[in-house]
Amino acid sequence: MKIAAIADLHCSTNSAGEMRELLEGVERAADLLVIAGDLTNMGLPDEMGILLGELRRLSLPTLAVLGNHDHESDRVEQLSSMLKTGGVFLLDGGTCIIDGVGFIGSKGFCGGFGKLAVQPFGERTLKELIRASIEEAKLLEHILDEMDSERKVAILHYAPVEQTLVGEERELYPFLGSSLLADALDRKGVDVVVHGHAHNGSPEGKTPGGIPVHNVCRFVRKRMGLSPYLVLEV
Ligand SMILES: [Fe+2]
Ligand SMILES: [Fe+2]
Questions:
Q1: Distance between CA atoms of 227 and 219, rounded to whole angstroms?
Q2: Which of 5, 41, 125, 207 has a CA-to-CA distance to 152 between 20 and 30 Å?
Q3: pLDDT single digits (tens) 39-76
Q4: Number of domains observed in the structure of the chain
Q5: In which band, very low, low, confident or very high, does the pLDDT at 145 lie, cut at 50, 70 and 90?
């Protein structure tokens, strides 16, 4: 199966033409489109409407996870139901199997990496933040336990490893992802991981257990002179 993966579309109400350009030829290049979060710029239904209009033209099966920008206007329920009616399968802590390939997806969250990860210690607000990150990692493990498929693709918005953040300011790393996500994926095993969110990061990395990780943020790919979407063969 050929999978086209892209992230950080940041569609706004005047982005129809830009979306069309980004997705040019994708229906011929792949059997399936994966969007790894930040579909909209401000999380507004009008923005999602524009994007769905462009996706409809492609008539390509499409899976997505939401990103932090999709949460910005606190309209996640409305956006999720628009995706559903628009024919996009939203993997919000869920799974689906298409032609024998299992997909799991979740937004993920921040928290930092390895020894420098922020610890759930002290103030309640800080504990709540890190708890949200721990819960995201647990959710990944849980859904991977439930899924019975030989080939598995994980879709996240936040980064599970530091390598795909290289290029970002070091101080931002704790806000761009969490190594808890990579730990969970390594424990349960997937074939490949795609994520976005790190606009100034790098395209390739690996989890400590050796799972390939692709930052498919369209801004990273543009900076590298690559096509807006990555085509993976699984
Ligand atoms: Fe983004
Ligand atoms: Fe983001």
A1: 10
A2: 41
A3: 999 999 999 999 999 999 998 999 999 999 999 999 99
A4: 1
A5: very high
Closest to 201 (Cα-Cα) out of 229, 156, 159: 159
CATH classification at residue 216: 3.60.21.10
Task: Note whether 229 and 22 are within 8 A (CB).
Answer: yes
Relative to the alpha carbon of 41, which ligand is closest?
Answer: 1
Q: Name 159's Cβ contacts closer than 8 Å, sequence gap at least 6.
A: 108, 165, 176, 177, 178, 181, 195, 197, 198, 201, 213, 215
Measured from the alpha carbon of residue 6, the closest ligand is: 1
List pLDDT tens digits, range 11-27.
Answer: 999 999 999 999 999 99
pTM score of the predicted model: 0.97
Both tokens of residue 128? 């709540």
Helix (H) or strand (E) holding 146: helix 124-146
Residue 72 tokens read as 């910005």
Q: Which ligand is nearest to the CA of 219?
A: 1
Distance 115 CA to ligand 2 centre (A): 24
Residues around ion ligand 1, judged by CB within 5 A, are: 8, 38
DSSP letter at 209? T
